[in-house]
Design brief:
This protein is mainly alpha-helical. Helices cover 55% and strands 3% of the residues. It has 15 helices and 3 strands. A 3-stranded antiparallel β-sheet has the order 1-2-3, with no helix packed on it. Strand 1 and strand 2 form a beta hairpin. Helix 4 crosses helix 6, helix 8 packs antiparallel against helix 10 and helix 8 packs across helix 12.
Length: 324
């Protein structure tokens, strides 16, 4: 019976140029050694625990958990060496056709999944990454031009902000290009009118790698404009001083006031406006990237080049606060 089984196996393998010995070696090396490994669900838990152990940012861990959840839901009961690139391609197609996710979002899922399989390979839990970009090609991304506010819209935002409790939040966002999350951490101690500097600190868990200083020098178009806005009112203890529990209510009222003036709130619009007018004014890639703490010259240049004219930037930097 054993000889008959071996003969039948040999016949099945012959058309592919495989011998029984070669097939056995392949199974021993690629199948049997992984047959007792945990399922994907169990290993994702370990992967997430590793992320928390090394001190990844809370936002990073939350995003990782969100993206791994979809992989676990589809393939959680399987072992890693049983998952193929075709399985991943099917998931990607489902994210496109059923979930209607954008190419950017789908690529982010694939990148997170790929990092998981890379971790598994490093820990000898599998020997294959089914998300490898050469096997599962990523969707092409067509970058859109960043939306920003016209000078008249900036004027309206600043006027409403002077009356709605968002004065420093808006003038520092519009002129200095400081990110919304960074603005919410700024305090009086971070702003020096004497030195004409703003110290922008990262979150505690990010360390000092993203610490930077925004300078607004004297006798400079940008510097004098920002100085006039900051010095026009007493510095608050916190730039973002709205009670956290009332944040949505206050901010919704602020945006509603803007809508009555025909200004639609743009996500990151203040920061985009700061970069747009600064680049138009100085025509210096290095200076503009330093202001916004941007680290990709090609992306920055392609996004912000030619969005505003020098005349428009002059109008932007001629805006000044009401006297109080």
């Amino acid at each position: 019976a054993l000889m008959f089984e071996a003969l039948e196996a040999s016949k099945k393998l012959e058309p592919y140029g495989w011998t029984i010995s070669k097939a056995v070696d392949h199974v021993l090396a690629n199948v049997i050694k992984f047959q007792d490994k945990p399922t994907l669900t169990v290993l994702v838990r370990k992967f997430m625990a590793d992320s928390e152990r090394i001190g990844d940012k809370a936002e990073t861990t939350a995003d990782l958990r969100y993206r791994m959840k979809k992989l676990v839901a589809a393939l959680g009961s399987r072992r890693l060496n049983d998952i193929s690139s075709d399985d991943i391609k099917a998931l990607d197609e489902g994210m496109q056709t059923t979930d209607k996710l954008s190419p950017v979002s789908r690529n982010q899922f694939l990148t997170r999944w790929s990092s998981f399989f890379g971790w598994a390979i490093a820990n000898r839990l599998t020997d294959y990454n089914p998300c490898n970009p050469k096997a599962v090609r990523r969707s092409k991304i067509i970058r859109k031009v960043p939306k920003f506010y016209t000078v008249e819209q900036c004027k309206s935002i600043l006027e409403v902000a002077q009356e709605g409790g968002f004065y420093f939040y808006c003038c520092l966002g519009l002129f200095a290009g400081i990110r919304p999350d960074e603005l919410k951490r700024l305090s009086m101690a971070d702003i020096s009118l004497e030195n004409r500097t703003i110290r922008v600190l990262p979150k505690v868990q990010e360390g000092l790698s993203k610490h930077r200083i925004v300078e607004f020098p004297a006798n400079d178009v940008f510097g004098d404009c920002l100085f006039d806005w900051i010095s026009a009112r007493p510095l608050p203890k916190k730039v973002w001083h709205t009670n956290k529990s009332n944040y949505k209510i206050h901010f919704r009222a602020f945006r509603k006031a803007l809508e009555t003036r025909g200004v639609e709130w743009i996500q990151d619009g203040m920061r985009h406006s700061a970069g747009t007018y600064y680049f138009a004014q100085y025509e210096s890639l290095d200076k503009a990237m330093k202001l916004l703490a941007h680290n990709n010259p090609a992306t920055f240049y392609n996004h912000y080049r030619g969005l505003a004219t020098r005349r428009e930037s002059a109008e932007f930097y001629s805006l000044r606060p009401k006297k109080v």
